Please model this.
Amino acid sequence: MLEGRLPTADSTTVNTQGARPKYDVFPHPDGKRRRIPDDWDFPKGTLQSTYVSWHCGDPARKISPIKLLDNRDFSAVKLKTRGKRTHTELKRLMGFIDKAARDKGVPPKGEMTQSEAQHCFSYGLQGIEVSLQTPKGRPRDVTNLKWQSVLKFLPKNST
Model:
């Protein structure tokens, strides 16, 4: 495979041992192939489910983990204007969780199963500096918040 280029359809369909790879590349209307299908969008789910997608992708649809995507994957019309920004926001948020998990002795691996990602998330959740109470004093379960909400609740000076 050439450096800096997405694999071709032939190279992703069958490897030298004849086994199917974990992830596919998908044709797009502009004739290019990307690691996400044309109808793909960023997860809208909870922080926890998004963390699993970040590290595991969508095995059933053979979609790559989000952490492996780059700007070329977002150049489809639907994601072109916000794909890079959203990916950068997600990368920052997932980095907080990964760092906290690493600090607790449970570092994320390059490839993880969904249960390994869940385990890593449980240790890394403390890396998210979000108040556990709402402004009205009610308890807030950060695991059930959507990842976009967590971004809004992060302190402005968090790095």
